[in-house]
Design goal:
Bound molecules: 2-acetamido-2-deoxy-beta-D-glucopyranose, calcium ion
Main location: secreted
Number of strands: 7
Family: Belongs to the SPARC family.
GO molecular function: calcium ion binding; collagen binding; extracellular matrix binding
Strand order of the largest sheet: 4-3-5
Shape: globular
Signal peptide: 1-17
Disulfide bonds: 71-82, 76-92, 94-129, 100-122, 111-148, 154-264, 272-288
Length: 302
């Protein structure tokens, strides 16, 4: 249980950090502007000291180069970097793993589905890119965060516990986001309305350490409170593209940090893909979490 709470805080922390990061970027952009400032109107340019003038030209040229760089707003996916060809056309090429920043510790290491430890997710993506088009590359995914380690086999009774705790956790994540969401806009207005109903329901099982029996009992009794959280998590993951299916990489933000702590994660999501087509459809997802077929509703996600 502790593990889930820790994970919740990480997730909530990430959600909170996102707007701050953007703010930092914006600040940087604003801070850069004065560099381009021309001498004040009316000031005699001759009076500008020579050195300063040279510097101004340097900066100007640098900025020109910066603005002319077609790679500047050419986005490449992970594992690739932008380079220009002879015609100054930007293109994405595989990144050399050795150009990845050195990792600052084991916590940055990742384990691939080939059970090989990579120094960081950058090293992993660059390596995977080099294998693009090969069978090996197709099968290689990031499995989990941290160095590869021995993971206990997940036994049947343990597997059935997984959705109990995960559902409870999802509900608590949403309620926590709702409580903290004063003006952070972590949730849309529509989502807030849905979570409000859960939050204000007196019968809600509050966050804490609960026995599996109690979790199972609560799911039966307060089944309706779990429908939205299960849909919400699916929508959070189904982003690239938004198509009602989760690929391995879409599922990764949830799976990767969880696997080292919860040894049934891999088996759970494997079995969740009931038709074995490598995608988890909304129907499959909902079914894994015990949501009845008639309650699966695409409109709950948007
Ligand atoms: C993966 O690698 C780890 C560490 O090298 C090892 O302990 C573990 O047994 C390996 N797992 C499998 C499934 O081979
Ligand atoms: Ca998708
Ligand atoms: Ca499937």
């Amino acid at each position: 249980m502790k593990v889930w709470i820790f994970f919740l805080l990480c997730l909530a922390g990430n959600a909170m950090a996102a707007p701050t990061e953007e703010a930092v970027v914006e600040e940087l952009l604003i801070a850069e502007e004065p560099i381009a400032e021309e001498p004040e109107v009316g000031a005699n340019p001759v009076q500008v000291e020579i050195e300063e003038f040279d510097e101004a030209i340097d900066i100007f040229e640098e900025e020109q180069a910066f603005a002319d760089n077609p790679c500047l707003d050419h986005h490449c996916k992970k594992g690739k970097v932008c380079e220009v060809d002879e015609d100054n056309t930007p293109m994405c090429v595989c990144q050399d793993p050795s150009s990845c920043p050195a990792s600052e510790g084991e916590f940055e290491h990742v384990c691939g589905t080939n059970n090989v430890t990579y120094e960081s997710s950058c090293h992993f993506s660059a390596t995977k890119c080099a294998l693009e088009g090969t069978k090996k590359g197709h099968k290689l995914h990031l499995d989990y965060t941290g160095p590869c380690k021995y993971i206990d086999a997940c036994l049947d009774p343990e597997l059935s516990e997984f959705p109990l705790r995960m559902r409870d956790w999802l509900k608590n994540v949403l309620v926590t986001l709702y409580e903290r969401d004063v003006d952070n806009n972590l949730l849309t207005e529509k989502q807030k309305l849905r979570v409000k109903k859960i939050f204000e329901n007196e019968k809600r099982l509050t966050a804490g350490e609960h026995s599996l029996d109690l979790l199972a009992h609560d799911f039966e009794k307060n089944y309706n409170m779990y429908i939205f959280p299960v849909h919400w998590q699916f929508g959070q993951l189904d982003q690239h593209p938004v198509d009602g299916y989760l690929t391995h990489s879409e599922l990764s933000p949830l799976r990767a940090p969880l696997i080292p702590m919860e040894h049934c994660t891999t088996r759970f999501f494997e079995e969740c893909d009931a038709d074995n087509d490598k995608y988890i459809a909304l129907e499959e997802w909902s079914n894994c979490f015990g949501i009845k077929e008639q309650d699966v509703d695409k409109d709950l996600i948007v």
